[in-house]
Write a structure and sequence with these properties.
The protein is mainly β. It contains no helices and 6 strands.
């Protein structure tokens, strides 16, 4: 859990059909996260794979609302193969957006 004070959060507003950027001062904010990890290894330890997902719950404690432009979570995947002294692998990382309006409804 992380607390923030005087956080500046950008948002977009529409005035007479035109979009403008606006910055809001969030007096007090908090992010809470939970991480889930799954590992799989072969019996010979030649191959291994890891999957993880981190859920993030960012909220404005002053307005009792979700922070608009913070990631809702991150997902990571890793695959690795080892042959003798050589090792090769791949890492995939993604971020999941949680853009919301002040009503808390997800935008598409």
């Amino acid at each position: 859990m992380s607390d923030f004070w005087n956080l500046i959060e950008p948002r977009f507003v529409v005035v007479r059909g035109e979009s403008y950027g606006q910055f809001n001062n969030v007096t007090r904010a908090r992010t809470t996260a939970a991480k889930f990890i799954c590992n799989r290894r072969s019996f010979t330890t030649v191959w291994k794979a890891d999957l993880s997902y981190t859920y993030v719950w960012p909220r404005d404690l002053t307005q009792h609302d979700i922070l608009k432009l913070q990631a809702a979570g991150t997902a990571d995947g890793r695959d690795q193969t080892t042959m003798g002294a050589w090792s090769a692998g791949a890492l995939i990382h993604g971020s999941i957006s949680k853009a919301t309006e002040s009503t808390g409804v997800r935008q598409r």
